[in-house]
Amino acid sequence: MMAELAPSNLIDEKEKQIRAALSQLDGKPQEITLPTTTEEIEKQYEELIEANKKASQQENLLNELVIKSTLLKEENSDLVKKQRDMENRMNQLELEYEELLEKTIAEDEAGETRDENFVKELKEKLEKQYSQKKEAQQQEIDKYKDIISKKDEEIANLEQMSDELKQQTQNLQNALENLKKTANSNKPIDLTKKEEELEKIKQTMGQQLADFDTMKKKLMRDLQNRCEKVVELELSLDETREQYNTILRSSNNKTQQQKMTFLERNLEQLTNVQKQLVEQNSTLKKEIVVADRKLMARNERIQTLEHLLQDAQEKLTLQNQKFDTQLTAMRERLQEARAQNSSVNSNNSWMWNASRIAKPLRGGQNVPQEDFDNR
User: Fold this and answer.
1) Tens of pLDDT along 85-94?
2) What stretch or stretches form a coiled coil here (predicted)?
């Protein structure tokens, strides 16, 4: 919301517009020559009336800017007062909170049956809530400080603009005095064009003032909304304080303390079980990833072994075929050798038997000793 308002940017734009209008108004020569003809006298008379109107307009605008600057100063002082009130409230709340903590500590020391862990946790929770509320309120205070600084910048810009307008009005008054000295007031002239220009300038000035008013209204609305937020924060802080008191009162009950401790133990057990399950899940996921990698490696190893087995089987079949062919060739050769050996043996046995046939003896021949022995 504050980004949409952007008072410094709006004031810069309006300042540029006002300066442009003032430059249009100030575009007059400072050296004035005495009129010699009727036309020059009429022109100087027109310039005199126009300068008089512009001077009155400048005075009105200057008065309006002074009023606005005073209003902005009052708003700034109100914001400073609100900031101081907020700081005082924060200090009071801190003191009350410290007193409340001291009371609770005294009650804790006095009450022997109260569970220390439960009380510590309650204190920590309430301190966290209080610190959060305090940070939120500190942020709101910082925002108000920024708003105050922006208001100061606006006031400085308006004062600068008022100074420039004073200079412009002084220049216009000087020009009026010079024109009054040299003008002839008895000549009738036509001022329709000049009046139209003055009406345009009036419209632009009125539009600029309306824009200033809308910007002021937006800033006041934003300030009101922020004050309402501060009130809401104070109410919520009171509610948390009441809740803290009710919790302290209810904590005196032993049954509720036992229930709370039982529930807290169950909650701690559940959180521990959840942590264990999460850790087991993470370890199982890691083991699954490792097992998948091992399985992929094993599958690749099995595929390579299968390829090697196929190659070995193919080589073995080739070797078996070669061995079978060699074995058949060896058998054929062995059979041929056996056949040759059998034929040679049969020839040798016949020749042996033929040599052993008995020859008839004739008279007067000596029988050899070997034949006799054989017989």
Assistant:
1) 777 777 777 7
2) 38-211, 253-347
